Amino acid sequence: MNWPRTILDGIAMSLFFNALVGLGFLLVPQAYSVMFPKEIKEAAAPYVDRKDVRTMHWILYPMYLVMFAYWGFSAHFAGVRGFWPLFWTGYVEMTFVSLSDFLILDCWLPKKVKHMIKGAEHCRAWERKEWLMKLAIPEHGLGWTLVACPLVGLIVAGIGALLA
Hints:
Layout: H1 3-27, H2 29-32, H3 38-44, H4 50-77, H5 83-108, H6 110-113, H7 128-163
Helix pairs in contact: 1-4, 1-5, 4-5, 4-7, 5-7
């Protein structure tokens, strides 16, 4: 495993991820409410447009594909070989994205953007403790750690195996 390259790629993709998700939120904020806690999701539902949700998906899905491809090719060209080194490279890089998402999008941003989601401005779920307990900690403590990061590790290892 190439630690300097893994750390730099993790930081670079964290910046890319947060910038693109933030930009997408500025373009179609109501669509992102479908990923928020249940109370916000229900309060915002009457204002959510399917076209905006499709736009959000057109932003997020290609972003993930670009990230996976970049990580796979980057690890390959950095000389990382073998299933486990490639797996752990992808896992660590996605962990960087998870940590940055948690700190920026889940700890810092909600208080600043709650006024942008129509119908959900006064939901209790916007309070820091509620947000962290209902969304951020389960998502990043369990979901990303046990599902997303290992999946990305497998994808990066698969790309690396195809390139070998």
